[in-house]
Each structure stands twice: as structure tokens, then as C-alpha cells.
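Our example copied in:
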Amino acid sequence: MIELILKAIYFFLPAFIANSVPVYAHHFNWLPNFAKPIDFGKKINKKRILGDNKTFRGFIIGIISSFLVGILQFTLFNNFQFIKDISLTNNYQYLFFSISLAVFQGFGALVGDSIKSFIKRQFDIAPGKPWIGPDQIDYIIGGIIFSLPFVLINYDIMLTLLIVGTILHFLSNVTLKIIGVRDKWL
């Protein structure tokens, strides 16, 4: 069971990081010139498409961070047997593969989160207001889908990602609230 969890976490690290760094980018005002909404304030059905929380800055920082995680995964895979043992594929030995998977996975996580935000806006759920369930799995589903061109993911890994990802999401939010980066617990 521990090995399965480690495999899932190592594999999905780019998506976990890409999903979390936009919060820090907002809090610490990284790349302030890119803090513009992706939807440009446009509306569908008289409701914002995504809202002010989905910015170019968040996407840029998320993609850059997943790119860097891809380089890290390549480096770790090629230097530590333990990492090879918990990797879902031996293709991490190739830098291009590692970076491509990581960027696609990070992009998928951000797209999944954006799709959920679109749905929230259409259901009149305010930006930042918790939506238990979808808030925890949106990025996981997006990251998994965008990983499929690179790696065949078995159901054990998918289920583990959904469970572990949900737990990590809650723990991350609690930690961010405690250290003052977020103002809400969920």
C-alpha cells in the first residue's frame, strides 16, 4: 500500500505542484503584470466564465513549476534506484519525456480546475467558496486525462490519486490557512 501511494505521488507531483503554486503567486504577488483574468471579464449567461481567480499569472506559474518538477523527476530517476523502483515508467530516463509529461500534467491540472470554476460560476457558486468534492478532484481528473498520451495509468493509481490527492488538498488548505496564505480553511 505504501509503495502504491509513493508511486502515485511521484508520478503526479507536477500536477500537485502546478495546482498549488498559483495560490502562492497570488499571495506574494509574483508576476503582477500577468495577474489578469483568463476570461478577460467576459460572461456566458450573464455570469463570468471563470472569474477573477483564474489568471494568466496562475497558469504561467503553474506551467513553469511543472516544467521544473519534470527536470527534477528526470534528475532523481537517473540518480536514485529508489525513484526508479517507484516510477510508473522507465521513460523518466529521457529529459524530453520527463518535461513533456510534467508540463502536460500540470496544464491538465490547471484546465481541470478551470473547468470546475466555469461550472461553479454557472451554478452561482462564488469564487473561493468551497465546493466539497469537485474542489478536491478537479485538478486530479484533468492531470490524469492529460497524462494519458504519455503513460498508461492503471485504476489502482487513479483511485489512489483521487484519495491521496483529496487528503493532500485538505491538508494543504489547512496549512495555508495556518501560515496565513489563505483566509479560508477549505
Residues 91 and 97 are 6 Å apart (CA to CA). The longest helix spans residues 95-122. The chain has a mean pLDDT of 95.
